[in-house]
Amino acid sequence: MKIINYVTSTNITGNKIAYTVIAVQETAMIAGDPLENTHYYWVTAGADLNDTANYLEPLDQIEQNLDTDYQLYREQYGFLFPEEIKTARAKLGLTLRETALLLAMSSSTLSNIKNNLVVQSLDQEIKLRLLTQPAALAQHVRQHQQLFVSRAMQQSLDARKLFAKLHLPLPQ
């Protein structure tokens, strides 16, 4: 544990509270894998800095520790970053729902990944990589055309437009 800074913050009643900002080297479990990372916490001034019960997530960036864990995990294991997923999807001209259909994942799961709320699993990463390889994605869709047409209809998606975006003919 290392003291980084001293800050004050105003609480909801308008009172100023002093905090000590500390850095702690910790092991976080991300997707079931241990990850060493430095986490930052705010501790109310005068409280025991060694008592983890006093640790507060940084009040100016509540998600800071989790965000850095996700970033480090993606770097360490070569996973796509949310920005890369968004860019690849945009290049293909696919909507979120179309992308979720093609990757056989729910729209909410895909949204959570692209908004950095969760780290994708290895299985999801393998599917997401198809977005960065348009020819492989088109081949994947071509192999399962009838299934994608059926599922598109079930989800009220226009299969004709979807196939056109991938430069594929709609199956007969």
Automatic annotation (TrEMBL):
<feature type="domain" description="HTH cro/C1-type">
    <location>
        <begin position="85"/>
        <end position="128"/>
    </location>
</feature>
<protein>
    <submittedName>
        <fullName>Transcriptional regulator</fullName>
    </submittedName>
</protein>
<dbReference type="InterPro" id="IPR010982">
    <property type="entry name" value="Lambda_DNA-bd_dom_sf"/>
</dbReference>
<dbReference type="InterPro" id="IPR001387">
    <property type="entry name" value="Cro/C1-type_HTH"/>
</dbReference>
